[in-house]
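COURSE: Structural Biology Practicum
ASSIGNMENT: Worksheet 4, Part C
STUDENT ID: 0417
INSTRUCTIONS: Below are two proteins. For each, the amino acid sequence is given first, followed by its structure token string. Answer the questions at the end about the second protein only.

PROTEIN I
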Amino acid sequence: MKKIVVSISAALLFSLPVISFAETNKIPADMPEEAQIAMSGHLTNYNKCMMQSRLSNSKNGKDAQQHADKIMSGCETHLDDLGELLAKHEVDAGLTEGMKKTMRSRAARQLMARTMNNLAAQAAAVSNADKMEAAK
């Protein structure tokens, strides 16, 4: 009798998390095809926004951080749209936030690397100009 009660209890215990896991942890692949295409569109639009914004470099080093912040915040609406789409299709909230965080982090790293390279190039150009001026 004790063995049967333990077996039933164990079966119930293990079946409950599986049921809730299956119902709440959807992934983007579980969405309809048109929603997956829309998701790809949101990601592409975010990447395009970041790329177009990067083309407008800051003119001096003092406002580089402000320029980067402006670019990041200007493109954030695409990630918000992505989050809304995924929430609408009941994709796991943790996965959704992870996707948005990954996109944001990757974009920030690329943006800051480009900004730092541009600032270094500007500093080198100024240094070379000063050397040329001093040599005259």
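PROTEIN II
(use this one for the questions)
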Amino acid sequence: MTRAALAALAGALAIGALPAPAEAHINKERSRIDGNTAVATWNYQVADVATFVSVVVTDNSTVTNGTSGQDRFATVSILQSNVSTGNVLVAGVADLSEFTLTVDDHLGSAHLQASGLFEDDSTLTFFPITIDLTWTATADAVRQHSHDVFREPGFLVISRFKGLFRDAAVTGSISGNDTEFVFGASESGQIQQNDSGTLTIQINKCGSH
């Protein structure tokens, strides 16, 4: 074998011995959330007792990489205190997973029925609470739409959102511990129809974390 042929063979062997470039591993996650949400607040004072009440209820369907699920919760927050003495009378949250929320297709009205336990942090006790509320739209629907892209090396998130919102008056009852916590007109109220989706792409070299 000639010297030139030997040199060519040695070069080929050297190239074959070099490590191959690290292969990339691509992770993709597609998710979608759509459903209805209703929110309401009350903020009032009767004699020396001031009360703030917040209600947020969401009934969403979810799909993540083709797998269907649900995102449902109803949360009632209450803070009640004596403005003269400064004593806190009630302070806590009820997180309710069992509830019924019905929403008109045009967001003209919504109705929530729920019951469960309220955790009162001021006394470190629980008491049963019952919710029966009705939202009645008071304004035309407002549409919102957004599309966002976030990227950095090896990472990309594309998200979109569209929603329909209507302000509403809220009436009904939130009762527990022998007390009615809804008094007068709601300070704020809204019925929402939301639809959002996200695509997340992450690129990792094999063997990296």
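ANSWER KEY EXCERPT:
Q1: The chain has a mean pLDDT of 88.
Q2: Helices lie at 3-17.
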